Amino acid sequence: MSIETPAPKQAKKKTSKKERQAAEEARRRWSHAQGPWLSAANAASLSLAAATVGSLPEVGLPVWAPAAVGAIGATAAYTKAAATKLPALSKLYRPGRWAGFAGWTSLALAAGGPWSADLLGVLGAGVVASALLRPASQAWEISAQDRKSAEVEAKERLDLAVAWERRIDRVCSIKGTVVTDIREWKNPHPTNPDEIWETGYTVKGKLPPSAGLEALNRNTAKLADDADLPAGCGVEVAGLPESRRTFELFINTVNALEKTIHYPGDYTRRSIYDGILNGVYRDGTTSTLDMKWKSTVLIGATGSGKSAQLAAVMASLLRCDDVIVWGIDPNGGGVFEPYLRPWVEGRATRPAIDWVAVDEAEMHHMLDFALAAIETRKIGYTDLMRQTNDTKVPSSSAVPHIQIVTDETASLSPELKEKLRQLSDRSRAASIRPMVCSLRAVSDSIPRPLMAQMQNRIGLRVNEEEDLNYLFGWKSKLPSASEMPAEGYGLIRHDAAESPRLFRGLFADPDSADQVAEATASWRPELDDVTVRVRPGVYMDRWQRARKAGWLPGLGKTTGSKKGAGPAPAAEPPRPAAPKDTPKGTTAPGPLGDMLSGLGESIRKKRQEIERKKNGPDESEVDATFAALTHGLTLGNQDGQGSVPRVLQAALDLAAAEGAKGAAVVDIATELRWSRPTVRARMRALEVEELPKPERWHTGAKPERGYTREALQVARERILSGELEVPAGIDADE
């Protein structure tokens, strides 16, 4: 008789080891609230009380009464132990305890009372024996039950293995298949780690010499039908490197993709090396993309969930503190505008998307810059690659990976598509990777030379089957349309050697762009100086060009910051060389002159404000205003003595933020685009001691090692007073 696949198991909550042990103990214990000593003491107390009361003349309890009760209890205990097939020790222990305490009570009644030394000694010995034997009895019971459970499980696995051997013979006409192992799936829920999914099992086996995996691949739907799997569940086949005849069948018994799975809302910090979370497979495991080394293509018709899948990928990219995202959108920037809105409105300190191109000219600017950066990065980071013993540029907050996301690739000109192809061909070693998105996977949308470089391939539901065949190859065995019944379903492949797997993309809510942009602003990296120097004018003026283009309302109101984090100011003509003798009353040109000129203008405005409020200026208020405006201003000499080094100033700026207690090493390293060892070494040179234990330096931050505000301020004062000499070269780039 054929043994069918067991019924699907419901997802259950994950429990800790201690909770499982406590539950097992409660299940197996016949006295839930008592330990061995307390249980024995309670039985002895009951016997002592019965003998004391029964020996009273007014009561006159017959001697045979306790013995009769004990006999009945012993008989019931033995019958129950035998019926449940408990081990011999348990069969003897339980009846023996009944007989022992009941017999002592009868003996005490026969002696006229329980209070003789001999009787109390016998009772005490019975308590000790009962307490000591009980754990041994329980251990035997547990071992017996474990053996029984293991035997039942082994029999079920054997029956299931035989059932699949017969099923493969019957459905695929392959005789002689041997199933070697069956493993159940127990995976954490992708959005709720406390929940465990038991969604199916894996069947591992070996085919006979005359058969191949093609026969299994052709009959996956028939195998699922023969096993009578629940709706939405199926069978997937994978080969193993052990041999060409070894295989694994992934059997779903619970449809893990039935319900929409939302993207996790914690937005914790990640790295590009951790993988880019984007969906869930049939077995309940999460799907991640290797976007550090591989180019990616995303295909999906209107209504397929392509926008939600792109939003999930974007959220995962922005959570990485070693990734910079650039965006290309020929449809006006609508895909990337929600990620920039918090920055434009002042709710985020940095733009989530570092560069956005919405017109042909800006797209050429971006792609030309990226192509030029390939060799610059590889040459500029030769020493870094040598240190890591690699031929590719490693990613960090100081040297971020550049991810170029292109939406609506079909609308791009042939010249732009060719540049994307060149970028995909050449930029892997420089840690620059493209991702292209399109409604259709046809050569008009994504040319074949560009498609050939895409290793990560995601195909959601399409209107034409040929799109998926073009994407995954005409020889690929693809699931039927009935297995992708709803928005978000699709196929994914991470390498040409793999077969496409059915998955469902994580659903990112429409407001997730706003949330992730705000949540990750504090660790958004800046583009490294080596890359900026490729074409500094093009890069630094990118937001100025966006403001003039007018595609992002409100952009012109944003205040600028370092490296174009805000809109770049209009380019100024070169200043003439300063004469040797600057006339009295004028300010020398250059950065120092700009600073002093701005300082004087601020003082004049403040004085005018004070004079408007009063009949005349108050000297003390004017002095206080001047002190406030000049606080922190240092005009060091040419050797740099007396000026605050960059590393210390960056730490002071972080410590001055609202609610901050100091500055973490990782935040200083991110701000300066240095490594943490460099920050620590240069802080030691300035005699600033790092706290030995991690601290939360501002609200909501995770504990990190760093420096207190007080220690930083002391170092600053010592430098300005001349007490501490600043080492030469401390401001040099890493």
From TrEMBL:
What is this protein identified as? S-DNA-T family DNA segregation ATPase FtsK/SpoIIIE
Against InterPro entries, the record matches this protein to: FtsK/SpoIIIE/SftA, FtsK_dom, P-loop_NTPase
A molecular function (GO) term:
ATP binding
Q: Note whether Nucleotide-binding occurs among the keywords.
A: yes
Key words of the record = ATP-binding, Nucleotide-binding
| Domain FtsK: from-to ranges | 277-469
Q: State where composition is biased (Basic and acidic residues).
A: 18-28
User: What species is this protein from?
Assistant: Nocardiopsis metallicus
Which PROSITE patterns does the UniProt record give? FTSK
For ATP, which residues are the binding ones?
G300, A301, T302, G303, S304, G305, K306, S307
**What PANTHER family does its record include?**
DNA TRANSLOCASE FTSK, SPORULATION PROTEIN RELATED
Instruction: Identify the stretch(es) annotated as Disordered.
Output: 1-33, 550-599
